[in-house]
Amino acid sequence: MGEEKWKVGILTQPKAPLVYVRDILSGSIPIGESVRIRGWLSNKRSSGGIAFLIMRDGTGWLQCTAKRDLLGRDALDELTSLPIESVLELEGEVRQDKRAPGGYELAIRAYRVISVAEPDFPIAKKYHGPDFLLENRHLWIRSKKMWCVLMVRAKLLKAAREWLDGHGYVEVQAPTLTASACEGGATLFPVDYFGRRAYLTQSWQLYGEAFVASVGKCYTIAPSFRAEKSRTRRHLTEYWHLEVEIPFCGLKELLEVEEQLITHICHRLSEWASEELRALGREPDYLAKIEPPFPRLTYDEAVELLQAKGVNISWGEDLAWTHEKILSEAFEVPFFITHFPRSAKAFYHKPDPSRPEVTLSADLLAPEGYGEITGGGERIEDYEFLLARIREEGLDPEDYKWYLDLRRYGSVQHAGFGLGVERMVMWVCRLEHIRDAIAFPRLVRRRPYP
Ligand code: 4AD
Ligand code: MG
Which of 53, 146, 68 is nearest to 106 (CA)? Predict the structure, then answer.
């Protein structure tokens, strides 16, 4: 935007230091100090000779007061007539006021209008249905709710990286365009790759298994794609996936890594995001109290538990979302389900040597009905056996030649898991639908817009 387009008001003393709303709300600026802020006008009301402007600058919301006595009639008229979402620079005095949201306000002395918004901002202070909000997502992300979720997401990833980096894991990247399925053909997105067929990745895992022989234990945070036909409250077609792969690691050690990582994230969020969590309806203390070890339940026990509750499920079936929901309503902390049958898991899962019909696999389920947030386990190390499993699943061994090579040149016991970032955000933020755990959700029933 060109400077000449700026509508200049009466910024008389543009000398006060520029600060963020967060600095004011955190109390780090002395009361009575003159400061400048700039941001978007997110709400306003006026009564008599005073206008209350709620300003949003990305770090928080601040009530700013404009008084006719101080600014004059013209200035007050101009400020009160500005449409919401207009952009302003305000200078004034920091005040403490119990009636102000957050306990602080800015008493405006001077201002400058940077950009006047159109008067028809589509998001009003009334109930909007989910479809309307999805269609207007580019504007809805300015809402307090989405802001809180985006803050929690950022802090969740920061906490995850902090733990992983601090424990010697190396962050690596793998391609999004791939030739082979990781999690089965049913949920692959095909892409025309110059006349050849490629797919959007379902998981970094197969590359992760290659990386361990280079950099050792490692992780990635990247999008995964699933052409999921399931229209549930917890399925996206594009989601963010935090995946970890560890050499010389068995199922037992893997579960310990997962519970430590999840616990660290929960504790950090309770410290770093307490305000956002509270605003979303989650008591930070609930996350502060999460402690390892998490309960462990075998698939057999889970099936028995479900059957005892009258659920129609037979051994060998994968757990459906509805099953997980029932199980996870019985827990108040995250819990593992281990040893899934071979028939319910992807080709790479290693069978339990003492009971080959089940695999050394584990899902971590969040409580309160949220269900699966991670999936993983030990991988098959043996070349011949892996090849046989690839064939058994009707996959083309040619596509997996490089992956099979990993068993030919220095194969070791290894294990890993994938965490669905939005699934975890959903649980920690107590969201009802996964669409609200990500800024621009990709859902099966909607075209990718905005
Ligand atoms: O259980 P999944 O399919 O496991 C894998 O992809 C393994 N290759 C991961 C690994 O071992 N490195 O997916 C892992 C996690 C799930 O537990 C879930 O949290 C999330 O990814 N997830 C989804 N999240 C949102 N929408 C979807 N459609 C998802 N599918 C899986
Ligand atoms: Mg899974």
Answer: 53
Ligand 1 pocket, 339 CB below 6 A?
A: no
Q: Whose CA is nearest to atom 17 of ligand 1?
A: 374
* C-beta of 39 in contact with ligand 1 (< 6 A): no
At 53, list the tokens: 């402007």
Specify which residues 36 forms β-bridges with: 18, 91
Residue owning the nearest CA to atom 20 of ligand 1: 420
What local confidence, expressed as pLDDT, does residue 8 receive? Answer: 39
Q: Hey, how many other C-beta atoms are within 10 angstroms of the C-beta on 86? A: 21
Residue type for position 398: E
DSSP secondary structure letter of residue 26: T
Atom of ligand 1 nearest to the CA of 187: 28
State how far the Cα of 49 lies from the Cα of 398, in Å rounded to an integer. 77
Q: Is 373 in the pocket of ligand 1 (CB under 6 A)?
A: yes
Q: 59 C-alpha vs ligand 2 centroid, how far in Å?
A: 36
Expressed in angstroms and rounded, the spacing between residue 375 Cα and the centre of ligand 1 is 6
pLDDT of residue 7: 36
| CA angle, residues 104, 266, 27, in degrees to nearest 5 | 15
Question: In this structure, are residues 291 and 262 in contact, taking their beta carbons and an 8 Å threshold?
Answer: no
Specify the pLDDT at position 6: 34
Condensed to tens digits (0 to 9), the pLDDT of residues 95-150 reads: 999 999 999 999 998 999 999 999 999 998 789 999 999 999 999 999 999 999 99
Give the pLDDT confidence score for residue 13 in this predicted structure.
Answer: 52
- Per-residue model confidence as pLDDT tens digits over 64-92: 999 998 888 988 999 999 999 999 999 99
* Ligand 1 pocket, residue 164 CB under 6 Å: no
Question: Which residue stretches of 61-117 are H helix?
Answer: 68-71, 73-81
- Sort 401 into a burial class: Cβ within 10 Å, 0-12 / 13-18 / 19+: exposed
Q: Whose CA is nearest to atom 9 of ligand 1?
A: 418
Domains and CATH numbers, the chain: 6-115 (2.40.50.140), 133-437 (3.30.930.10)
- Dihedral sign for Cα 14, 15, 20, 22, please: negative
Q: What pLDDT is stored for residue 218 in this prediction?
A: 99
Ranges of the chain whose pLDDT falls below 50: 1-9
